[in-house]
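User: Fold both of these, please.

Assistant: Here is the first one.
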Amino acid sequence: MESKVGTNRTAVAEFILLGLVKTENLQSLVFVLFLLAYLVTVGGNLCILAAILGDTKLHTPMYFFLGNLSVVDIGCITVTVPPMLGRLLFHKKAISHDACLSQLFFFHLLAGLDCFLLTAMAYDRFLAICRPLTYSTRMSQTVQRILVAVSWACSFTNALTHTIALATLHFCGPKEVNHFYCDLPQLFQLSCSSTQLNELLLFAMGFMMVGAPVVLIVTSYIHVAAAVLRMRSAEGRKKAFSTCGSHLTVVCLFYGTGIFNYMRLGSEEASDKDKGVGIFNTVINPMLNPLIYSLRNPDVQGALWRILVGRWSLT
């Protein structure tokens, strides 16, 4: 391989994203389904934001983080789905090298924010249930903003590191990416130069982005479970489990698919499975989050109902 990619190498200026399906009829179906999924996701997360901003009862740390999570979910699906819909609509599969790197950067930036926001929400539940007397001081507005700022800083560092490392690789053909968006495992397969450093970075940064947050979340919920089981009030236990259950469901979906995708580098034989995982990461998870948090949360349901009733009464 090394001898074939010498100084006369021709750099790849664009990649061909093969997408999810090949037949035109199925492409039309995929277009409709993903367009509907995008609209549902954006609409659902905007409803969550409207409920949080419009109801003073929801101006609490937990809903502050949930609002940030909704913004991130809108961004995450917007980075991948609209470009794919555009390629399906105009029957264009090519994406420039720079556009591919930009998509990868923003996807990993937003996915990283998801990791840390979910961790901050677990820490918030730990303080609220296990340290209720000092909760207001330990989770003040300043602390909330610091946690979000640190999340942005760590996510930006992770995304920029992977993007710069990927930019140093040489791509001289083939240029077909068997996916519907640009991501690390699929691009590694196309590199004409060694990806050993990139793979080491993926595992090292993966520990920071996934390993450490998972340990913190699990530790928080071990303490939360112990505290809830000690509660004498059945209503209190029910409310605690309801609030934490929604968060745990989202955590399992997000980290389960993320670990499957990045903690093992996809081979060509596993590329179709990678597409399925990619759909979960970019479409299904952001779409399910508002449904999970609203269906299992009477506070959010009540806030949405009051907003709808208030607007109806005004008309």
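And the second sequence with its predicted structure:
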Amino acid sequence: MVARVQPDRKQLPLVLLRLLCLLPTGLPVRSVDFNRGTDNITVRQGDTAILRCVVEDKNSKVAWLNRSGIIFAGHDKWSLDPRVELEKRHSLEYSLRIQKVDVYDEGSYTCSVQTQHEPKTSQVYLIVQVPPKISNISSDVTVNEGSNVTLVCMANGRPEPVITWRHLTPTGREFEGEEEYLEILGITREQSGKYECKAANEVSSADVKQVKVTVNYPPTITESKSNEATTGRKASLKCEASAVPAPDFEWYRDDTRINSANGLEIKSTEGQSSLTVTNVTEEHYGNYTCVAANNLGMTNASLVLFKRVSPTIPHPLQGPGSVRGINGSISLAVPLWLLAASLLCLLSKC
């Protein structure tokens, strides 16, 4: 706000005399010129404002005033504000320059001119625009699935910023309405993630901040894979589950919990687990149970380790015209007449 200098009591008669000679009678002086409107000047916060005023001749007496009082009387500066100076690009100009404009500078300014004929005034209304700035936004939040969630985003600016919310997903859904509060009723696991608050006005680029919403839910088995194995070989069973917080896994054979020992190895990472048998024997074949649990619940899946049966390979001499004897020898099923004919041919040397 442009400040005003308080004159010394001893100088008060002299000050009043100068003002009476300089200004039209009475303040405010807006009523002196009924036909002249008020000009609006819009300036962004932090920029420099130039309020134009031009006199008719060099003998005119000029002053700048605002709602707080006198800023300049002639070339005498009454304001203590170092940001305020006169702008005189030529002898008849008497413009007012305000640097680093702030919101408290907004308001009406009057250039009062006392000519040889009549007093005139020129009024300017300074409008200060402020870029949008988010002043308060919800912290990251963790809730259980099915809960109601309210996110808050408040912003300052002139003109008043428009606030919009968007869920940062591949679809980038933008929520209806322009509200400081975003309410999500019965939140689901698909609605977890980051939410973006954007505050925008026409002064500058929008201010954007994000809130992360974590939705807790109990485990769900997403994949369980049985396997077949050959005796003496290595084999694995795998189990995957979705949950927040990430689930803990346990493996069971019948009702007995399995640990990593005696040729069995359990490896669990976030969301998946595997049970590996390093050397399969007959006792390893059968049913297994994978259990996934967190603080919201548990679930399980049954898996089977099958025995791999090798296919039977026929004897290379065995064909459709052969017969296997009792002792395992191969005999050819040849008709008797063909054998007799062959024997007669051999005897007669045919």
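Confidence is low (pLDDT under 50) at residues 1-35, 321-332.
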